[in-house]
Design goal:
single chain, 147 residues
Length: 147
């Protein structure tokens, strides 16, 4: 069941017949429901579905970090979709059916700041990490007050 809020020219939420209404990046979108395929998926499709599920289920736990880290670098995507897109292309390794996440290649944040000077990580309490770095100053876009 769908709901029309404010008349036909306003936001439609949910399913109305063969159409689905939703809001994407502040824009109202009304689209046809996709048809179900009667063909069996190819091995490439199965591999892509597995990689997508692997990455999205793992990144879901880091949603609060990703929402901040990919906020300004999304090119029309939500921060989470931008993070999944980048990490699918760069952080999945292995061959079918043994795909794994290359944790060294995972990116949590992508922006315009320069890399920190002498970063350090220390365990301060059980399951807590303390990140620290020296301020990058001079001819950069970083400030000593960056957190």
């Amino acid at each position: 069941m769908g709901f029309i809020n404010g008349g036909i020219d306003y936001f439609i939420r949910g399913r109305v017949g063969n159409h689905v209404g939703r809001k994407v990046d502040g824009n109202n979108v009304l689209a046809m429901r996709p048809a179900e395929s009667t063909k069996a998926p190819t091995q490439a499709q199965l591999d892509q579905r597995f990689k997508f599920g692997l990455m999205t289920s793992w990144l879901r736990r880091l949603a609060s970090v990703i929402d901040v880290g990919f906020k300004d670098n999304n090119k029309g995507l939500t921060p989470r979709n931008a993070a999944v897109s980048y990490n699918l292309a760069n952080a999945i390794t292995g061959a079918s059916p043994n795909f794994t996440i290359s944790y060294a290649d995972v990116l949590y944040s992508k922006g315009k700041l320069d890399l920190p000077d002498t970063p350090a990580i220390a365990v301060t309490a059980a399951a807590k990490l303390d990140y620290s770095w020296l301020a990058v100053t001079g001819d950069t876009n970083a400030l000593p007050t960056d957190k």
